[in-house]
Amino acid sequence: MLELTAPLAEGQAVGRLLRAWRHRMDRRSAHGSLGGPHRSRGRLSQADVARLTGVSEGWYRALETGTRRDFSDAFLQAVADVLRLDEAERLTLFLGVSGRRPPEEHTAPSPPPAGVLDLLEVQNPHPAYLSDESWNVVAANATMAHWFPWVREPRPNLMRWVLLAPEARTQLLDWEDDFARVYLAMLRIAANRNPGSPHLRALIGDLLTDADCRRIWSDEHGVVEHPDGHRIRLRLPVHEGAVVEVTSQVLLPVASRDLRFVIVTRNDAATAGPDRRPAP
Length: 280
Hints:
Blueprint: H1 12-23, H2 31-34, H3 46-53, H4 57-65, H5 73-82, H6 87-98, H7 114-121, E1 128-131, E2 137-140, H8 142-147, H9 158-164, H10 168-171, H11 175-193, H12 198-207, H13 211-219, E3 230-234, E4 244-251, E5 260-266
Antiparallel strand pairs: 1-2, 1-5, 3-4, 4-5
Helix pairs in contact: 3-4, 5-6
Pfam families: HTH_31, MLTR_LBD
Protein name: Helix-turn-helix transcriptional regulator
Domain HTH cro/C1-type: 44-90
């Protein structure tokens, strides 16, 4: 049995992975990018990867040997692209070298996994929905649509309905304190997490056309990531004027990290009645 007499040097584990990932690459697949009178057979060398990522051979060699350097996200992304790393390998490279996750890419969102959609439906009779990083509602179960019919409209957005829809200010009780201040505080974190997102910039611009939202945005400095366990009171048409207190629970699906899975549960014991049945 192999006995380790000393811990692995910092970076060594990732360095071994990098060498394995580089050795699995057929150099001919990168031949056109390398240019010049280079040999076309064999595996990529450290010099090859350095040339393809635009750094010196010594700089790339430091990455493979675990030597501490201030490696930028752009360089690590370039290495991952050259070595054709998949999502899990790219994550391992970033965490092992810098302790950071790869920066999020703002690409067209993929459809929610079928299993997540199935899980959404089994939450009935509790309202449940999926929203993306800009609070677009990408899926909702039948009870959510029964309580909040606006989720069936084209391109429904939670922030826009809560903060801009006139009916929201009467259906969501304590609108300013329990909704507007909390939702705008979430937007502050989102805007700093993804400063390059055109969708978030457009959303914030639309919301700040409202005088109340603009005042709260200017006066308040609170930040909230996810209001998990947020207790709120509603007076919805589906409840025929009755005030209903609910709690929203926020989950983050591992398979779709850009989505929020939100379940709304009533705080009373009632489980029957017309408001508990999905719309036909």
